[in-house]
Amino acid sequence: MNSIEELRHQVINVAKRLPDYGLVWMAGGTICARDSETGYVVVTPSGMTYSDLTASDMIVTDMQMNIIDGKHRPSVALNLWTGFFRARPDLNAMVHTHSPFATAFSVIGEPIPILTETQANWFGGPIPVTPYLSVDDERFATLPVELLGQGFGVLLGQHGVITLGADLDGALERAVTLEEAARTYSIAKTIGNPLVFSDEMSRKSFNYYHQKYGQNFKDEA
Predict the structure, then answer these.
(1) What is 3-212's CATH superfamily?
(2) Over 60: is that where the pLDDT of 87 sits?
(3) More confident residue, 113 or 209
């Protein structure tokens, strides 16, 4: 199996996991990933329920959105997904969801601050929100990229959630983590005034997690 075929399997496998976490329903959301060997992009088709799809239904395009292989129409927001990849060569995967708690903050136009250590570990800073942008708005493919900056997530105003990662596992874990943080924030706001991480606290936690945490890192001698 070549790298593109393997990535096709990975993309549909992640797409089929989204409903398990309550992040999408029916044909909602999008999964998109860039192949590090060819630079090609694999993306879910537009408006099709994931449970009915296989790896062969995933569309392969180049970074200019020319279709290389695929029998379906790709995500209508492909210009935005490739825009993220062009701006951030360190990121190769994107998960777009309509998860209810995080999306609720996009509806009121409120960024999601860093509230917990786990959220800080994955994001390192608050998640910004765009105004509402229709797919034919000239800012649709650029403003979310600008607001993302060096972060890992952005809310599309009155629409949904985007998280990114070096790979699909990272992008998915960020999507799950952000929804849980938004749910916790919503609950906390009903019972008091939530405490939030400062930018310094968030960055320190993020750096520690990615430099010291887990089994793949060793303390310096």
Answers:
(1) Class II aldolase/adducin N-terminal domain (3.40.225.10)
(2) yes
(3) 113
